[in-house]
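Quick one before lunch.
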Amino acid sequence: MFGTGLLKGLGITLKHALDTFRDDSRGTPSRYQDSIVLDSKRRIIEQPIEQEGILTIQYPEEKRLLPERFRYIPMLIWDTETGEDRCTACGICAKVCPPQCIWIVRDIDANGRPVARPGEFFIDVAVCMSCSFCVEFCPFDAIKMNHDYELAAYDRYPQLVYDKAELTVPVEYYAALWPDQWAQEEELRRQAKEEERAKAEAKARAAAEKAARAAGEDEGAQPKRTKAELDALKEQAAAKAAARRSGNGEADSTAAATDEAEAKKARLEELKRKAAEAARKRKESEA
Ligand code: SF4
Ligand code: SF4
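Model of the iron/sulfur cluster complex:
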């Protein structure tokens, strides 16, 4: 029938209006369940899905609880542990920023040499489109997305061009806004440190083993001799060689004498045999 949809819609609106009064008549309306009370007027409301009645809140006194992945404009992380910016002024974020709204000035030391930290860091937040590319590409976890969306100002310049001081927040602030992501990053950082430590230990162990091996080889090796010792050894060797040579001469003469005696003996035996042969022949002829 014509108009039933309209009536149905009005009925739902009426139900929400009545639910609102009914909900408000309770001690704690459902929209304030699990809300964070900042003071008597201000609170942060979670707005659960089962909330009854009107869905509006009394902004700016009341604000919605933002999800962790909400992002607005970037913030620079100040590492309170090291007391330094995490940013190294590498410039990658400025290169990848689609609307080119990041401008970095690298810092210099006392001698005018550039150092790996930003002297200045500007973001034109009126141009930033909250894409989070700068965060995705930063190799040092130095830039993250802030949840702060209350940036209204009367003049764009200079109020909406944020400098380093305005962009910098301590790492604890980031940890509170992004607890899950921060915990994951910390775990990865811990693992990387553990791997680095294990590698350093393995390297130190290998160096110690090499040094121990070298020391062992030195102990087993002949100690180095002085020149005088070497000369003395040479003389000893020469004396031994001479003695060996003279010993060989004696042996030669003894061998020669032995050979001569043997020859004489053989000749005598031959003469004896011939004499015996001649005597036998003579006896046979006489017989
Ligand atoms: S925020 Fe990250 S990417 Fe950008 S300059 Fe600093 S270290 Fe490099
Ligand atoms: S969030 Fe996107 S637009 Fe904004 S500064 Fe980062 S890269 Fe640029």
